[in-house]
Amino acid sequence: MRAGGEMGDGQPGGGGNPGDDADQLAQFRTAVADDLLFLAALHDRELDGDRILALWQEGYEDFLSLHLVGESGRRALGLLRAGLTDIPVALDQDSLDLLAADYADIYLTHGLRASPCESVWLDEDGLIMQAPMFDVRAWYARFGLAVPDWRVRSDDHLVHQLQFVAHLIGPAAAGEGEDTDLAEAAEFLDGHLLLWIDRFADRVAARCQARFYAGLALLTAAYVNEVRDLLVELAGVPRPTAEEIEARQRRRAAVSIPVAPPSAFVPGAGPTW
């Protein structure tokens, strides 16, 4: 399930400055991209028997290639593991139904009032498909990407954003100018995912029934925060201050966004996830 080399102490390659060693940097990029895609897959659809068995077989220590050093990340990983132990080995229907109900409340019906879409958190009226979604869509287009169907899952959905950051950080992007792509990843995280992921995670953890989904939400937030901290050195892009973030949000709110969405994605017209 996982690819990439073993990580240590939160640093690419297990220590030292990853920028000093091309192999370590490549290992870091592969590991982080794989981890982000792994987390995206867990947010993508509800757990079924096959996925649960695969997680059990993978082993509780091997979910991530990047070793998280922050306390919040370690606690979240422990909660995710504990959530897996809550699931009976027999995989009875009641347990699967509980997980399915939590998944629906988080990602489909918004029963927890914890939307996985950015616009709901940043729009002053809490509406979907607002200015943040169009900004995210523009980011994707710059890199020749488009979501398969924005009507089913909008561009600013958590799954799409994790996949996009994986695309920017992954080894395939390195051939086109690794420093630039890492800086782009840092900028995208600052302007989008990191503006709301912590609030999403805290609300899910406080309101969901299954410890697995509480752990997944908190782990995702902790992971992208630690990756962003590493990009301070790797990309040379410091994290913005609270004042800079607030100013950026004010500028975004002042931008006029067209009400009509662009035309639907046409299969074969461009790469997707």
Set down the secondary structure blueprint:
Layout lengths: L21 H23 L4 H10 L12 H15 L7 H16 L9 H5 L8 H12 L15 H12 L1 H4 L3 H14 L5 H11 L3 H24 L7 H13 L19
Helix pairs in contact: 1-7, 1-11, 3-11, 9-11, 10-11
In round numbers, the mean pLDDT is 83
Gyration radius, in Å: 18 Å
> Distance between termini?
18 Å
Helix-strand pattern, N to C? HHHHHHHHHHHH
Question: What is the β-strand count?
Answer: 0
How much of the sequence lies in strands comes to under 5%
How much helical structure, as a percent, in the residues? 55-70%
CATH topology name? TorD-like
Stretches with pLDDT under 50, minimum 5 residues:
1-10, 256-271
How many separate domains make up the residues?
1
Biggest sheet descriptor: none
CATH homologous superfamily annotation: TorD-like
Number of helices: 12
Supply the CATH class: Mainly Alpha
Overall shape: it is: globular
What does this structure look like?
By secondary structure, the chain is mainly α. The chain has a single domain (12-254), classed as TorD-like. It is 58% helix and 0% strand. The protein has helices spanning 22-44, 49-58, 71-85, 93-108, 118-122, 131-142, 158-169, 171-174, 178-191, 197-207, 211-234, 242-254. The radius of gyration is 18 Å and the shape is globular. It starts with 21 loop residues before the first helix and ends in a 19-residue tail after the last helix.
